[in-house]
Amino acid sequence: MQFWQPCRLQRSLIDDHRTARAAMTFAEAAPFLTGPASALFVALLGFLAIYRTFNSTMLPLLSGAIDRHLQQIDDLARRQQAEHQAIIDQLQKCNQRLDRLIAQADWKQAQ
Length: 111
Fold this sequence. Notes:
Elements: H1 8-18, H2 26-34, H3 36-110
């Protein structure tokens, strides 16, 4: 029956585990502070710095550049519309002149 009874060492480990403190000592916490937890914290701080820098400097620059680009496109569209209107006016004048010439030619043939 002694086979089923835990030995004294096992009992002491179980008792030590039950009475252990909830707080960690610095020696126990040091690997976490210098290991993956601190790396994650530094990475998060880096991403936050990049995000804040992008929002405070890059977005205003980009929005200004986009506004200038859209203004250039609007100016180009206005100039192109004016050119199209000038071409249409010239074509209408040419058409009227050809109609007059054809009418004169028809009148001369009729005589």
